[in-house]
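User: I'm new to structure prediction. If I give you an amino acid sequence, what do you actually give back? Let's try with this one:
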Amino acid sequence: MCSWFFGRGQGRGYGRGGGGGGWGRRKGWGRDWTQHVQSLPNLEPVPNGCERVAAGVDTNHGLNSPLSPRFGRAPYILVIDVCNGEIKNVRTIENTLLDMPRGVGVAITQWLINNGVKIIIASSIGPHVEELISQAGLKVMYAESGIPVMQVLRSYGLVRS
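Assistant: Good question. You get back a string of structure tokens that encode the predicted 3D arrangement of the chain. For your 161 residues, that looks like this:
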């Protein structure tokens, strides 16, 4: 058909021309995802001799919080400092990135890396997050969703009973 029939294209391909309209505009991948990450708090440095562990959880009940089925879309992120089999510090942080249309898991993972996390506990992780974790040299410990985080820490031997 002719351009007079369809009008100017929308930039989505199919030979309709017009340009524009691709990713990175308004609420897409574009400019504003780093702005969202800045809404998450910076954590104090990891204490000497400790490992920092993170898990996406469904509730704000500390170590009794159940593991969320989706890491990036979990309502809360639990950050735990473990030193010689003992828990030194536990922080529950609200996931303020839930309203992002895409890239939430990658943004949260980047924030966790920047804050010294070395181990991530999750029931499932997307392919982009998995690639980022691999590049950063983090460990992933998989567990079923709904299991309390403390139970997962014990089952993997991170915390003494």
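You can read the tokens as a compact description of the fold. Here is one thing that stands out. The first strand starts at residue 50 and ends at 57.
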